[in-house]
Amino acid sequence: MIGKLNHVAIAVPSVSDASNQYKNILGAKVSKPIDLPDHGVKTVFIELDNTKIELLEPIGDNSPIEKFLKKNPSGGMHHICYEVQDIKEACSKMKDEGAKILGSGKPSVGAHGKPVIFIHPKIFNGTLIELEEV
Description:
The protein is an alpha+beta fold. It is 22% helix and 38% strand. The protein has helices at residues 15-26, 64-71, 87-96; strands spanning 2-11, 29-30, 34-36, 41-47, 52-58, 76-84, 108-109, 115-119, 128-133. Strands 1, 2, 3, 4, 5, 6, 7, 8 and 9 form a nine-stranded mixed sheet that branches. A hairpin with a 5-residue loop joins β7 (108-109) and β8. The model has no long low-confidence stretch (mean pLDDT 94).
């Protein structure tokens, strides 16, 4: 069921500052910032040859990134995203295996405009997992 690593997400206090570090220090290709108010984040993608890094900045009062940054003020790894062919099948499999899908328990539209789900970190050794349909 699981496909390629799509991206690793890093929570940061400022996507502008963090993306400038990737661009100026590492010479990375950086996307324009995108506000995703439904997810409570502003996001920037760092393009790599084999995957992407997603930088996440909190926006709005109920941003899960704001809560993360209160515990980790300088930022840190937030989640890992894997690709799946069929998000509905992935949801069914996760539920059958006893995994808790966060939010409504149903797919929502992610930063790439594709259906995504997030799986509670206690299922995968403390790591928040995002699955994205490709």
